[in-house]
Design goal:
About 25% of the residues lie in helices and about 30% in strands. It has about 220 residues and is an alpha/beta fold. A five-stranded mixed beta sheet has the order 3-2-1-4-5, with helices on both faces. A five-stranded mixed beta sheet has the order 8-7-6-9-10. β6 and β7 (about 120-130) form a beta hairpin. α1 (about 35-50) packs parallel to α2. It is globular, with a radius of gyration of 17 Å.
Amino acid sequence: MALILCLETATTNCSVALSKSGQLLALKEDKSNNYSHAEKLHVFIDEILNENNLGVQNLDAVAVSKGPGSYTGLRIGVSAAKGLCFSLGIPLIAIPTLNSLAAQVELEKGFIVPMLDARRMEVYASVFDENLDELRETKAEVLDENSFSHFLEKNTTIFVGNGVEKFKAICTHSNARFILDKLPSAKEMCSLAEAKYKISDTEDVAYFEPYYLKDFIAG
């Protein structure tokens, strides 16, 4: 019956969820196009706990979206999660961002391709089956009309995320389905975090770093 605080800051969505035994108890989000994480993340954490008559001392673990995504957004989320875990002496759980994005899709048979915008025609993407088992690792890749053809030729393939619009413009395959403008949310992290908590799949709080995928370039 773990009580887990879930933090998602990999994109413009500043998202905080509270889960118990893998079930969503409460959710607070700011899906505006502006990065509000520095101003709102800790406010959301305080509000979600206070509104449920809980304190940080009641938490069993903190889960954080590990990336890929925004360099600054990931730093803010991971720093908050590590600070809580270190001060409370509780486990840190890392959830790959694209896993929770893929979990927004329900599919009877086929493939799910979560896709985050990474400037120009580049995206961060991975591939999952209908059971959310990862079939292809996360990559930063430049899109063209033949991207993901291996999966498209086999079955229905659903593309989801804020990188989908650029692929929809060049993909004409009949098996392609597009879900536009979806962002990762802490809501889908709840069940994923509970599964990791049960098997003690946790991180070293002192040394854990976000999964940036690409080197940060200032300016």
